[in-house]
Amino acid sequence: MVFASYLPLFFLASIPIKGVLNWLFPDKAPDKVPHINGTKYIMLFIFSHISNFLIGLGGAYTIEQLFFYEYPFFTYLGIAIITVGYFWSFLKHFNPAGNISTFILGILVYHTIHFLWFYSLITLLLILLTNHVSMGIFLSLLTTYFGIIIFDLNETFIITNTIIIILFILRKNKSLTNFFSSRPETITQQFHNRNYH
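Given the sequence above, the corresponding structure tokens read:
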């Protein structure tokens, strides 16, 4: 019975929110008016990131409510399942369902609201210092262990954060090893190669 509770959480974490929003609000304006499309893309960006954050936060909260009286193992397994569902979405050909950083932020904010500013600030700083998005997020995940001391968190956070870090390494291993290559993909290169849609 306990394992049947994981399936809806896995499915909900796998839903690509940006694709759903594109389906709900298709392009109706002609291509000759670029500022109308620009506004739509800004709103799509904001709503998709807020939704990804809420999936992480809501998933962690739901797991805690479902398995509060069970062994802590079920909570850790639930966090791992929603993270796997989000990182390897079967609805998006086993690519991430959305922005990984905002999803992780949602799970971290479940432990303490202070991660809203701490993780965001550290991630931005480390991305700029390393000039590499995946390495910046990875290093910021490692620095969140300081939250144990700074924010007085319990051992649940240690195990949850370790699960997230392991799954992040598995998801982004190619990008993380690219950082140590002779020609890493920098933020500037990603900016020039970006896709507008």
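Residues 3-192 form one domain. Try to locate this feature in the token string yourself.
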